[in-house]
Amino acid sequence: MTEERKQELRQLLGEAVATENLKILYKHGRGKIYEYWLPIPASEYQRYLQQRWAAYSAEPSWFFFSVKPHIVNEVTESRLLGFIREELAPFIEKDSVYFDSHAIEGNTASGLRLQPIRGGVLMLDVCLDHLLKIAIVSGIENAVSIFARFSCTEGAHGYFQSIALLEGISLEAEIQVFKGVRLFTLPDADSERPPSQLATLFFDMREGRSLRGKTVLAIDRPVYSIFSKRSQEAFLDGVPIDNLPFQFKLDGEKFTDSKAVNSFGNLFCQALSIACDSAVQISGTGWLLEEGKFFHPGNGGVRPSRYRGLFGKTKKVGPDEIDEAKRLYHILDKNPVIRKDLRIPIDRWIKSKASGSEVDKIIDLGIALEALYVTRKDSIVKQLCHRASLYLGENSVNRMTLEQELEAIYDYRSDVVHNRGPGKEVEIETKVYSVSDLVKTAQNLCRKSILKIIQDGGFPDWSRLRQWAQHSS
User: Fold this and answer.
1) How far apart are CA 209 and CA 188, in angstroms?
2) Percent with pLDDT over 90 in the chain
3) Does 247 have pLDDT greater than 50?
4) CA-to-CA distance for 395 and 67, rounded, in angstroms?
5) Strands 315-317 and 169-171: what pairing?
């Protein structure tokens, strides 16, 4: 689009969204359509759209089709619609265009390919509505820029977001974790109220209710979007990126496909859990094409899992905990041996921090401690208790105390597994532990072990550690 055409669009949009020229239209009815103006100021409509887009909440379908911005001046409306028709002329078929957005997927056999994630037919009046919404929410200049990018025949590169809803932590503020990765909290229930004038229209807020206040991990992924005639809609499906009829740049992107995203999400949640001492778990996933950044009405699908799962208590964390999680992630990411060896201990420790019975937790912790300290099938208890006390103990007295605690933990776990009816209290020397205290002790020892192994760059040489302990004592 030339600069002259951009200036023409700026002028038309300026006329269209002027206070005296913009009204909110409500259309309803089957068969015969009835329509009338709603007494909603443009500023209220703007606030509503800003809140829904920021909350990743798609407009309810009835709202999308029934409530819309409308240009009162018919001449301005006709000129703006004519402008859109001229710019999208290469793609128009039966007064509509087809839009398609492609992500990158791949495997070792076929390499990286474009994979469609969202597409559909847009009538030109819907294109006009969306252009108006962008101008209302984020300004005329932004609307002009987005329309210019997406109306060109070669399409537009950008980023969409892979989304993971996290349980176990809440944030003091939004945090940029890495390039293209951020953590933030979705708005709560009170921040997404519709204009009061919409209440009489049976406004339904249930679609976004389950997402409110959730902690979100958002990861940018490359996306390619293009308009075309409907008869050409599938021409890019499954095409290797090396064989595309245009240049598709990947500027050192780490999170190209869903495999890379899932691998990162799982590992980073392990690092977050250990750093924050909380069970950080993914409770739902989805993706997002931000409506304010794409010339595509609708924003994708972000949904919590239907299975509620067993999730632990939520802990508020800040930049210090996130920085520690980043440090742990880098170590695990760069060392596949440590990552593999610690997968079971970390996963079982996380399960023990989630909701569940004390019995289930002690079983999970027993498995975690065995995975950390046991390498032979015989003398399991002796290996576990002796090695852990040597590895974690600060001196001979502390090592003896640790060994007794670990023996009590493992004995209780064995009683549970073999249905020997363990009691509600455990005596260690002169101290009496409740089962809850025993679980917390085991959790702390397990976490301390994991952190030390990560910090040391791997598991110790147990023979050398035993010799050192004997010599030092």
Assistant:
1) 9
2) 39
3) yes
4) 72
5) parallel
